């Protein structure tokens, strides 16, 4: 399904010029200018990585995407399928497991729907987050069961998933278990058999390439909304 974003998986374009091609900057919203201004002010007070003009731009884009996706929800928002389509068509993500996890990280109130505030706040980190913000974001994507730790089993599942997609030869479970052992040896500093945020942060600060060690969950190209 095409949500009218981009046919090029690696075209990352939320520049205002690109948004105009989606007719979202000039889009008519189902709200008056006073309501829109209040919403922009409210969201702008909670995000530091976007200017007010960019927040308004993203609000308009959100409503345009919801309309294109034919989403009909009591609380206007993007469901998981619509959001996954955006992650794929705009940001080139192809990993089903990680796309689902990115959705759940955006969906802060866990209602299985991304509302406009979650959309802008999530993109603030996803696109322009500080190193610390992206550390937290990636860690939240990787702990699959929501307990605040990346377990041995979760590492196994993510590595198996990643290797299956990147290799024409299926990796056997024993080989993946060896990789899990190597990963834990490198990142599990307190030797408790799982990776805490403290472990993850220390490992990534020492070697930045480990930020997305369990699979790509951030856009490859920075987006400029100017």
From TrEMBL:
UniProt xrefs under InterPro entries: EF-hand-dom_pair (IPR011992), EF_Hand_1_Ca_BS (IPR018247), EF_hand_dom (IPR002048), Recoverin (IPR028846)
Keywords associated with the record: Calcium, Metal-binding, Repeat
Pfam entry (one): EF-hand_7
SUPFAM superfamilies membership: EF-hand
Protein name (Swiss-Prot/TrEMBL): Calaxin-like isoform X1
Protein source organism: Acinonyx jubatus (Cheetah)
Keyword Metal-binding carried by entry: yes
Signal sequence residues: none
Keyword check for Acyltransferase: no
Domain EF-hand: 94-129, 130-165, 175-210
